From TrEMBL:
The gene is dsrH. Keywords: Transferase. GO terms for cellular component: sulfurtransferase complex. The keyword Transferase applies. It comes from Aquipseudomonas guryensis. GO terms for biological process: tRNA wobble position uridine thiolation. GO terms for molecular function: transferase activity. This is Sulfurtransferase complex subunit TusB. Transmembrane segments: none annotated.
Length: 99
């Protein structure tokens, strides 16, 4: 059963980012929002970890948060707006928010 994982906390503040990556299943998706988009900064261990995920795991980033932080979306990720965010939540069987 595929799960969409929602991560909004900075990957530099605690272990949620690493814990989430460890639990991703082969058909899961990961949506970064808020400060979690900082994981997409070039030349970081976090971006490298995301790029090493299997291609079957979809990676999304909320476009509004990328723009607010002046970050570019890397090739591995897909920028989504709020309507697409809602659509993703209905596409996956489960949604898990990493609070």
């Amino acid at each position: 059963m595929a799960t969409l994982h929602l991560l909004s906390h900075s990957p530099f503040s605690d272990s949620r980012f690493a814990s989430c990556l460890r639990l991703l299943g082969p058909q899961d998706g990961l949506l970064l929002s808020g400060d979690a988009v900082y994981a997409l900064q070039p030349n970081t261990v976090q971006l490298q970890a995301l790029q090493l995920m299997p291609e079957s795991i979809a990676l999304y980033a909320l476009d509004e948060d990328l723009q607010a932080r002046h970050l570019q979306v890397p090739d591995r990720a897909q920028a989504v707006d709020y309507p697409a965010f809602v659509e993703l939540c209905t596409t996956y069987a489960k949604v898990n928010s990493w609070l």
